[in-house]
Design brief:
Structural class: alpha+beta
Pfam families: ACP_syn_III_C (PF08541), FAE1_CUT1_RppA (PF08392)
Order of helices and strands: HEEHHEHHEHEHEHEEHEEHHEHHHEEH
CATH architecture: 3-Layer(aba) Sandwich
Pathway: Lipid metabolism; fatty acid biosynthesis
Strand content: 15-25%
Shape: globular
Number of strands: 13
Transmembrane segments: 5-23
EC number: 2.3.1.-
Largest sheet: 9 strands, mixed
Domain Beta-ketoacyl-[acyl-carrier-protein] synthase III C-terminal: 337-420
């Protein structure tokens, strides 16, 4: 009998051991944001209507048709007059950049934002265990992460990663790397540094598909401090719930829709093709399909299944009208049932509008992305954090709220993740000194009022007016 009980107890104890190990591993796989710092360049790097006019006029490769195209693009871009450009633009050397320009642009951001976030969190650079840096269009030797390690004299066993060529979705790819490192090591600190170097990537040609990027991209960056130490959870701002990455690089059309290349004259630039909206939509739909079951209530998923079955049944019966107009693709799922706030990449007005229609979002939901695009422009992979900071500054983020981040990038990729707000937030980060000014009464760009006369010019007699300074 004693042998019987012994044989019975052993598997029960083993089961408890397996359960205990699972709970322990789950605890150690947590990922928290302790703090983050968005970069705000100095006012002498601010880009207004006058300065943009000067930069455009400096490009002698542009003709009247290109000026008209730029006017239309800038007016409809959603970008305001307080975005920032790299210093090389203000010295008029965008046609002949040096490697030093790109490195100094990044170092100016690094040493401002990293220093601030570490100081505010009370963390020494010597305590950083993992460093991930993503700057898509600048590769330097030594690497950018090495420059940071050297400047802050970090430990020799700091695990460093540099990401290049990942585009605007690189922040969440960097986050995924950190999460995977956290799975193998307990109680660690990680620093995620995300930005884009524009100094060497200003297009000075006249190819329309490559001029467009000049209208959208602006300087910015963000340093994020993360940990998997559960003892620090009450000090944290956000807790990561899940992350989903979708990559359509195997599709030729998606791969080539957003690519760095040279034009016919050998001038380097960033080509945005007409197939970009289609590629973005496909990757977005696939990403939503993967993340929806992870973040939405069971009842909402069941409702969606029932509605989908009814629609399919009606189609089989032929009750659906033929030739009905096809509008923008909608998710069909009520994401608001599992998400409180939407942190959308500021890829452009069309990107924000498209996501808004697809997810049936209100203007209140889209306001953070719209205002971020207006104030800071498209700061590439760091744009998500400016949007998040806007929500914080507006005191929207309350304990228990869930924030869905959505980003797109060359390749073509769509990445998303869900954060849970750990405590009430309201500091505002980069917005705190000016948040009362937003949203403004209008987001209309003043370019049309100043340069609208270009639309009426005759190509055969076109010349800038004598009093034209911009």
């Amino acid at each position: 009998m004693e042998l019987f009980y012994l044989l019975l107890i052993i598997p029960i104890l083993y089961l408890f051991f397996i359960l205990w190990r699972w709970v322990t591993e789950l605890r150690d796989k947590q990922c928290y944001i302790l703090d983050y710092q968005c970069y705000k360049p100095s006012d002498d790097r601010m880009v207004g209507t006058e300065f943009c006019g000067e930069v455009i006029k400096r490009n002698k490769n542009l003709g009247l048709n290109e000026y008209k195209f730029l006017l239309k693009a800038i007016v409809s871009s959603g970008i305001g007059e307080q975005t920032y450009a790299p210093r090389i633009m203000f010295s008029g050397r965008e046609e002949c950049p040096k490697l030093e320009d790109g490195i100094s642009e990044m170092e100016e951001f690094f040493y401002d934002s990293i220093g601030k976030v570490l100081s505010r969190a009370g963390i020494s650079p010597h305590e950083i265990d993992v460093l991930v840096v993503n700057v898509s269009m600048l590769a330097a030797v030594p690497s950018l992460s090495s420059r940071i390690i050297n400047h802050y004299k970090m430990r020799p066993d700091t695990k460093s990663f540099d990401l290049a060529g990942m585009g605007c979705s690189a922040s969440l790819i960097s986050l995924d790397i950190i999460c995977n490192v956290f799975k193998s090591y307990k109680n660690k600190f990680a620093l995620l540094v995300t930005s884009e170097s524009l100094s060497q990537n200003w297009y000075v040609g006249n190819e329309r598909s490559m001029i467009l990027s000049n209208c959208l991209f602006r300087s910015g960056g963000c340093a994020i401090l993360l940990t998997n130490n559960k003892a620090l959870k009450h000090q944290a701002m956000f807790k990561l719930k899940c992350l989903v990455r979708t990559h359509h690089g195997a599709k030729d059309e998606s791969y080539g829709c957003c690519i760095q290349k040279e034009d016919d004259q050998g001038r380097m630039g960033f080509h945005l093709s007409k197939t970009l909206p289609k590629a973005a939509t496909r990757s977005f739909v696939d990403n939503l399909r993967d993340i929806a079951p992870k973040i939405l209530p069971v009842l909402e998923l069941l409702r969606f299944m029932v509605v989908s079955l009814v629609k399919k049944w009606n189609l089989r019966l032929g009750s659906a009208p033929k030739g009905a107009p096809q509008g923008p693709i909608k998710a069909g799922v009520n994401f608001k049932s599992g998400v409180d706030h939407f942190c959308i990449h500021t890829g452009g007005k069309a990107v924000i509008d498209g996501i808004g229609v697809s997810l049936d979002l209100s203007e209140y939901d889209l306001e953070p992305a719209r205002i971020t695009l207006h104030r800071y422009g498209n700061t590439s992979a760091s744009s998500l954090w400016y949007v998040l900071a806007y929500m914080e500054a507006k005191k929207r983020l309350k304990e228990g709220n869930r924030v869905l981040m959505i980003s797109f990038g060359a390749g073509f990729k769509c990445n998303s993740c869900l954060w849970e707000v750990v405590r009430d937030l309201g500091d505002g980060n980069v917005w705190k000194d000016e948040i009362d000014r937003f949203p403004p009464k209008t987001l209309l760009n003043p370019y049309l009022a100043k340069y609208g006369w270009i639309q009426d010019e005759d190509p055969s007699t076109f010349k800038f007016p004598d009093d034209f300074k911009g």
